[in-house]
Amino acid sequence: MKKRRKSVALEPQAGPQALPAAEEELNLWRDPLVHILLVLAVGFAVYSNIISAPFVFDDLPCLVNNPAIKDFSFIADPKQVFALPINPDLKNNFVLRPVAYFTFAVNHALHGLDVRGYHIVNLLLHLADTLLVYLVLWLTLRTPALQPGRGEGVPPAEKFFYLPFLASLLFVCHPLQTQSVTYVVQRFVPLVAFFYLGSVALYAAARLTEAKGARLACYLGSLLACVLAMKSKENAFTLPAVIVLYEFVFFRGAVTLQRLARLVPFLLTMAIIPLKLAALSSLSAAKNGGTVAGAVNLVNFNQTSPWEYLMTQFGVIVTYLRLLVLPVNQNFDYQYPLQKVFLAPAVVLPLILLLSLAAAGTWLLATSRRGDERAALRALAGFGIWWFFITLSVESSVVPIDDVIFEHRAYLPSVGFFIALLAAAFSLPERFIGTPRCTSRPAVAAFALLVLASSAACYQRNEVWTTQVALWRDTVQKSPGKARAHFSLGLALANTLPAWHTDDINVMLQPMDSAQNQVLAEAVREFRASTKLDPKSAPGYGFLGAALMVQRNFEEAAAALATAVALEPKDARNRAFLGQLSEARGDLAAARLHYQQALSLSPQEPYPHLFLALLSMRQGRHAEALQEYEIANQLAPRPDLGPKIAQLRFMVGGR
User: Fold this and answer.
1) pLDDT in tens, 473-506
2) Of the candidates 595, 617, 614, which has an alpha carbon nearest to the alpha carbon of residue 605?
3) Nearest partner of 206 among 151, 245, 243, 166, judged by Cα
4) SS in 3 state form for 73-120?
5) Do 599 and 608 form a contact (C-beta atoms < 8 A)?
6) Which superkingdom heads the taxonomic lineage of this protein's source (predicted)?
7) Residue 100 and residue 107: Cα distance in Å, rounded?
8) pLDDT tens per residue, range 422-467
């Protein structure tokens, strides 16, 4: 059966620019609805294996153990969070990103800590971002700067019809996006991208719409999305700059007061994040005795030099580009050295490459005003390059962040990369007049293989996230010199053992089978490796001591726990571990003293109350045991505590 022929609906062209009928193709493949359905199908397929992936790493303090997402009163009055016994950075984060934490609070209200609901929301956000990538490009192809002059050929919206589809397809299945989507707490990234892309799309729609009411609605929607982006993640600070760039690249004409007035409200939103940071800086300084010198120190815990951080980022940005081109050896926690010498090859060579790319982007934008047949593609490519640099500038510039590299930071910048890449592909010499070479059958076959390979790599990368042990094994293999990776693998291994899922030291010391003992031995090795790499890590020594205690190696356990307490005297957990060790050795009086010291340091932590309750039970002090159990259950309700409390109430007189 013959395929139907699809002709391009154009006015007759005169002279050498006359276009023949388009090559045979099914109308089905030119239907945007088909494009959208295919992109969604690919997205669901490559992330189908992560719906039940566990909470990992920062998910635990930010979500699982964070009281602020379990009560909407904190959303209504974020300053309440400063009274909670949680990490100071988490408090600042909560205040800076209220929109993101609101979505987590909704998740918790609907299904508690069932991880599947959190993953589903993350995936839906990623798919929404993908559709917005399609929409932004679809609208951009219709902007005035990309329209041909009279008699100049096929409009870009027709000639580059497949460009939005190809860009969104690459975006949805690229393996580098996995950390942004699969790592639950990094919902900040797809969420800010949703408002960021939505703001650009609505701005473009407002500029293209002729109806006054619709134009105003789109403009106000764009401005609202801009504000919501600012309250989702700090890299939204760059959004007004992208809006300004979009206006002057794709909407030509004189710089008038009307155009400037249209942009001023967006530029004013750039004050939201600095003002919030300044307020938090003052608040933190007041609460910490003036130790926070400025807003930058809210994220710069290692007191890294801005200049050293910037030099390091030259190589980091090139690493992001390499991962976008060839996504191999992805890593959850990179072992990336801080650069201290400007003339080092690791600084100079990446800088030369980045300056060359920036110069190329500038040249492409400047020459896109010539009005020739490739002007539209030069405008797209130049805009894509500068999108990449602008959206990355908050996290890869002179503002030091504790971790110099994380894959999720390339999520939003990757949109610009894909735009520039496809603009370059469509710039290849045409097969026929008006027919891009990259839509030929060999090119389509090559692109299909690329998407298939990318999808397989994305699915495979997601497999690493299906267990905490698998994730940290992969990380340790790729970052063997990183103490945090070894510590996290040791903790993940320990949490697979029954001994680490009980409050009772007598149960913890029960014999395990040979396989479990091997896992425990591996956990001890990982904790030892973490303390060797970071001798000042109190948590490393603390959990090493706990693991050694479960091994019944009491002497080494005591030494490790003593080191942990010396390194961090105010850490209640290590005091509690010392109490358990004293119980294991039969010194109940010392155990009680350690538990009471732990409670004096962190009265809001449930575990010292639980340990003290069990000890009181053993000593026949049932009234004290009841009191401690009731406090622990109030701080962190658990279904298994109800029967114990009821039994103790009966024993002490039916309270």
Assistant:
1) 999 999 999 999 999 999 999 999 999 988 889 8
2) 595
3) 243
4) HHHHCHHHHHHCCCCHHHHHHHHHCHHHHHHHHHHHHHHCCCHHHHHH
5) yes
6) Bacteria
7) 11
8) 999 988 877 655 567 777 778 888 999 999 999 999 999 999 999 9
